[in-house]
């Protein structure tokens, strides 16, 4: 197709970046951060395998066997690459342990959503470890640079994931520039999710949205590999992505150029299993939990920044969560859980907690309000996620716990040792500790692997529960 007729400048920029990026161009710090995202995401995936949405995706995969396909991680199921990406991405997002990205003016999002699908594509390609790391960094850059320019909050951030995964899969499958351009065009025009997935009472589709984005990106790459042409002018056409999804015309910054910062460095990993804008509330409540008996609490006020109030601290459904997906996006719920149990873990959202009358009685005593100073701290760089939890007990005593601006702030860099501890905790029911140590050693040295297809079989968990597949 003619470049002037069929391609636009953003499509060309993404195509050039994806085709030219090489492992040798990645600074050591970027390589290391990419490996932490792989380790962390696989720990979250294994911990999320028993979620209802994860099981549903696996049932679908079981009915679509493909002996030379890709692995549904944690199992021996082999299926089509796009179906494996759906199942793997869903499981990785189920427990809400992912990374966050907050840059002033950006849409934000969870760029770690790309990791399961990129690993799936790398396994299917029998790519080496360096190619996997390069594809992860590439996908992060595409995701986050699109996040920086998108303005339309009616569409979901998983749209960035679909485009990013398509580009990374094309890289792993050694696409020509023409194939890459078609691949990106198909993912851009077809893979768009509405923000309603995270509004009101939240269903299991919240986790599936990430997996579906990975599926969409891989499917576009599969079609391009087999000769499918993508739509013309996917970004800048009259009905293109810029005007109707991003909500604005934009110009991307230079990608992969000397001196440009790789965007993966600007992401941060969560230390708690909840929505990012709820975590500072958890941390503040944790400081009070040892001092109080939940039965003595008369009232609780949670003072937060505006984004947290809007996302997870307002609307009647935040006080009446009926699914784990709604609960981990509810400040009243996570504060009540932290005050009751001392912290919040994936187990804080099990059926016993969701149905606990004492927990719901405490939720009704909680109100969430904005603190203007906290909003200012959140909207400047470097970002601070500040929250204050004020508890008044029945005898009138006032207790205050605060978080933000310290070593536990979401803006603070997480250490490799912390990543290892999180991985071990998330996978402790899946493998003995010595097996976990072997897996960690392999993942920390993934750049030495000649074929990353050896990774999924090592992640088979022990004694999975019987499923009706």
Order of the strands making up the biggest sheet: 6-5-7-8
Strand content: 5-15%
The SSE string, one letter per element, is: HHHHEEHEHHHHHHEHEHHHHHEHEEHHH
- Overall geometric form: globular
Overview of this structure, please?
There is one protein chain. The chain has 469 residues and is an alpha+beta fold. The chain has 2 domains: 3-269, 2-methylcitrate dehydratase PrpD (Orthogonal Bundle), CATH 1.10.4100; 276-403, 60s Ribosomal Protein L30, Chain: A, CATH 3.30.1330.120. It contains 21 helices and 8 strands. The strands form 3 sheets. A 4-stranded mixed sheet has the order 6-5-7-8. Helix 2 packs across helix 8, helix 5 (81-94) packs antiparallel against helix 10 (205-225) and helix 9 packs antiparallel against helix 10 (205-225). The longest helix has 21 residues, at 129-149. It is globular and about 70 Å long.
